[in-house]
Write a structure and sequence with these properties.
about 0% strand, Endonuclease III, domain 1, single chain, 13 helices
Length: about 210
């Protein structure tokens, strides 16, 4: 298969397996989504969804969040890991949203990436999920699977994102981002992966996966 044919196969198989896609992070609006995505760094979605109700019970808007101290935020979000940095980031981004964006989460990549604790992937998730702007956030699952399926060389996350954007039409990006994540967790994990049993790797997986048994 050519890379384009492989991309079409992947899109079709994922749509078949996951006809409906919903973001796994519980949220109510762009701000609560932004905070949840910040908390999800090196933390499971399940744990984030356990912690955000506790945090949002005290502060679910930027105006309320800045009234909490960084230490108060840190105490609540500690189970998510990296609590000191995340707490400082959430407090800081809330202040900037108030001071520079009228209390509303900005709907531009540049403005989002300028916020504390918000990198390119986080900004991409917010853009596509909160504002419906085409973006293809690449996390470790997507980076790994794009390499396994020979859709990218896997040189870097940035390179993988660029490769996938070329292969798939914009209208598929939002759903594909989530579908690949779901597939990676269910069928194509980083460890203990049997490519022969994988619905996609068994068809288009790199040959070295079979040789290495991964």
């Amino acid at each position: 298969m050519t890379r384009t044919e492989k991309a079409a196969f992947v899109a079709g198989k994922l749509a078949e397996l996951y006809p409906r896609t919903t973001i796994p992070l519980d949220h109510e609006d762009p701000y609560t989504l932004l905070v949840a995505v910040v908390l999800s760094a090196q933390c499971t979605d399940k744990k984030v969804n356990e912690i955000t109700p506790l945090l949002f019970a005290k502060a679910r808007t930027p105006q309320q969040m800045v009234k909490l101290s960084v230490q108060e935020i840190e105490d609540i979000i500690r189970p998510c890991g990296l609590a000191p940095a995340k707490a400082k980031g959430i407090h800081g981004l809330s202040r900037i949203i108030i001071e520079q964006h009228g209390g509303q989460v900005p709907d531009s990549m540049t403005a989002l990436e300028a916020l504390p604790a918000v990198g390119h992937k986080t900004a991409s998730v917010v853009m596509v999920q909160a504002f419906g702007v085409p973006a293809f956030p690449v996390d470790t699952h997507i980076h790994r699977l794009a390499w396994r399926w020979t859709l990218s060389t896997g040189k870097s996350v940035e390179h993988t994102e660029a490769d996938l954007k070329k292969l798939f039409p914009k209208e598929q990006w939002a759903d594909l981002h989530l579908r690949i994540i779901y597939f990676g967790r269910e069928h194509c994990p980083a460890k203990g992966h049997d490519p022969r049993k994988c619905p996609i790797c068994s068809v288009i997986g790199r040959r070295e996966l079979f040789a290495a048994g991964r």
